[in-house]
């Protein structure tokens, strides 16, 4: 029986499972490029271009030393709670953010002057106290366990998955990939809809869209096909024929079809990148995150050659699980974020697409406001950045939590109870990408639990 003769549900399940296996590991790099298993899309083909870029901070970034109370009274409360971890107030003058919220002034970490400049220019906003939720939840409801709560709170793997997919570890699709699902048919080919420069991430897998993984150097080739095998061009040709030729068995036929598509996609991407003019924007090529975002910028520059109208990108930086050595390690990580994101925004300006690219940060969770002596422990809500030419920047979104332990926003040790959900953040970004209100539940099944589905990052 051929694949197209299978019952539709059986066929789709085979394809879904095949794609899940294809992104399982680096041992089969060709299988990481399976981005066109399904071509159907629910949205009308877009005439313009838009891209969404997720910057994931693996390990749980410490919110307390990223966005810091600056007015004298709030800083004094913060310093009393943080003890050995507090950033001195006189180190924050250069990164103090203009304006106030609730009568309080905040500052970015001293290592983030370039993002502060983007705030001043109205291109960077701060989403306050956002995190995983099932529905809006009060502190009283949390303590009474009278509403459903996210499972396995404070667990790295599960909270990463909840951020990226709205379900705990074991999820097979994420909301970035589900956004991609709705735009597959508008991209020709659809292979390059969801592109990951950081390895495998459930955020980028859709119900139909499969993440196309690249390295900071470009596409991952099958070396025996793209160059001579054992010093023999004939061997290389034989291998290509073996893994791409038509087959009579439906499973072999489907596998070879996907491999051929991967080989063809690698050639298209390689040519598109090779034909590009070098970017004038300077990136720190000694830093991982900068290199990843440089590749995203190059991929965006190649959007016409890649046939892309809507794209979702994923990059990541690790090292944020700082139970100790926070004061020595987090500043270096924050500097990487500052340099990489600011350079990336400058590159979008250079490419003339600043209004068409929105970048946001995400992380497993925030951390405790209290110090454990040399670091902070797993938390819940956190503060995150939204950046782009279309963003109404220079402002805060959401509610600024109190600087307190056992206060109105705290479930213990300065762990913030989120007042904004990841679903609301995701819905705002998905709507900007062009997802209709009707289709939002396809991307975010729990979005119906929230009255406010648009947080207002973008002008109407």
Features:
460 residues, alpha/beta, two-stranded antiparallel sheet, ten-stranded mixed sheet, globular, Alkaline Phosphatase, subunit A, disordered N terminus, 33% helix, DUF1501 domain-containing protein
Overall average pLDDT: 89
Strand content: 5-15%
Give the CA-based shape: globular
Structural class: alpha/beta
Could you name the ranges where pLDDT drops below 50 across 5 or more consecutive residues? 1-10, 16-42
Number of domains: 1
Distance between the termini: 52 Å
CATH C-level label: Alpha Beta
In the CATH hierarchy, the architecture is: 3-Layer(aba) Sandwich
Oligomer: single chain
Helical coverage, percent range: 25-40%
Tell me the radius of gyration. Answer: 23 Å
Write down how many β-strands occur, each being a DSSP E stretch of 2 or more residues.
12
SSE order, one letter for each helix or strand: HEEHEHEHHHEEEHHHHEHEEEEHH
Characterize the biggest β-sheet: 10 strands, mixed
Predict the CATH topology. Answer: Alkaline Phosphatase, subunit A
Number of helices: 13
Protein name: DUF1501 domain-containing protein
Task: Give a description of the structure.
This protein has helices spanning 8-22, 72-82, 113-120, 139-144, 156-165, 175-181, 223-226, 233-244, 250-274, 288-301, 326-350, 422-433, 440-443, and strands at 50-57, 67-69, 106-108, 124-131, 194-196, 212-215, 218-219, 310-317, 357-363, 382-388, 396-397, 420-421. It has 460 residues and is an alpha/beta fold. It has one domain: Alkaline Phosphatase, subunit A (3-Layer(aba) Sandwich). Strands 1, 4, 5, 6, 7, 8, 9, 10, 11 and 12 form a 10-stranded mixed sheet that branches. A hairpin with a 2-residue loop joins strand 6 (212-215) and strand 7. The protein is globular, with a radius of gyration of 23 Å. The chain starts with 7 loop residues before the first helix and ends in a 17-residue tail after the last helix. The model is unreliable at 1-10 and 16-42 (pLDDT under 50).
């Amino acid at each position: 029986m051929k694949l197209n003769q299978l019952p539709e549900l059986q066929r789709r399940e085979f394809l879904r499972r095949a794609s899940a296996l294809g992104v399982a590991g680096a041992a089969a790099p060709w299988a990481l490029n399976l981005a066109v298993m399904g071509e159907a899309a629910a949205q009308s083909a877009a005439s313009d271009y838009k891209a969404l870029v997720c910057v994931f901070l693996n390990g749980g970034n410490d919110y307390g030393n990223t966005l810091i109370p600056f007015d004298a009274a709030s800083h004094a409360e913060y310093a009393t709670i943080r003890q050995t971890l507090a950033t001195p107030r006189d180190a924050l003058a250069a990164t103090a953010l203009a304006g106030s919220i609730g009568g309080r002034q905040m500052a970015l970490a001293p290592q983030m002057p370039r993002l502060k400049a983007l705030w001043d220019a109205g291109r960077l906003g701060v989403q306050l106290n956002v995190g995983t939720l099932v529905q809006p939840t009060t502190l009283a409801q949390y303590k009474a366990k009278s509403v459903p709560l996210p499972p396995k709170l404070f667990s790295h793997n599960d909270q990463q998955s909840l951020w990226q997919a709205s379900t705990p570890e074991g999820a097979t699709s994420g909301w970035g990939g589900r956004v991609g699902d709705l735009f597959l048919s508008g991209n020709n080919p659809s292979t390059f809809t969801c592109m990951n420069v950081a390895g495998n991430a459930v955020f980028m897998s859709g119900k139909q869209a499969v993440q196309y993984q690249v390295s900071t150097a470009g596409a991952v080739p099958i070396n025996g096909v793209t160059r001579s095998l054992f010093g023999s061009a004939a061997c290389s040709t034989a291998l290509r024929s073996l893994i791409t030729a038509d087959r009579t068995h439906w499973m072999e036929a489907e596998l070879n079809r996907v491999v051929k598509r991967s080989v063809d996609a690698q050639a298209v991407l390689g040519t598109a990148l090779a034909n590009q003019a070098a970017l004038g924007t300077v990136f720190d090529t000694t830093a991982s995150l900068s290199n990843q975002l440089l590749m995203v910028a190059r991929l965006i520059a190649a959007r016409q050659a890649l046939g892309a109208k809507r794209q979702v990108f994923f990059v990541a930086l690790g090292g944020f699980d700082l139970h100790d050595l926070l004061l020595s390690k987090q500043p270096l990580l924050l500097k990487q974020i500052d340099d990489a994101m600011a350079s990336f925004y400058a590159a979008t300006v250079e490419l003339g697409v600043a209004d068409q690219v929105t970048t946001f940060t995400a992380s497993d969770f925030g951390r405790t406001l209290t110090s454990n002596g040399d670091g902070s422990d797993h938390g819940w809500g956190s503060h995150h950045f939204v950046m782009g030419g279309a963003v109404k920047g220079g402002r805060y979104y959401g509610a600024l939590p109190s600087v307190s332990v056992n206060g109105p926003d705290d479930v213990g040790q300065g762990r913030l109870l989120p007042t904004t959900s990841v679903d609301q953040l995701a819905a705002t970004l998905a709507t900007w990408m062009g997802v209709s209100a009707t289709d939002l539940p396809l991307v975010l099944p729990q979005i119906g639990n929230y009255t406010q589905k648009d947080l207002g990052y973008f002008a109407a």
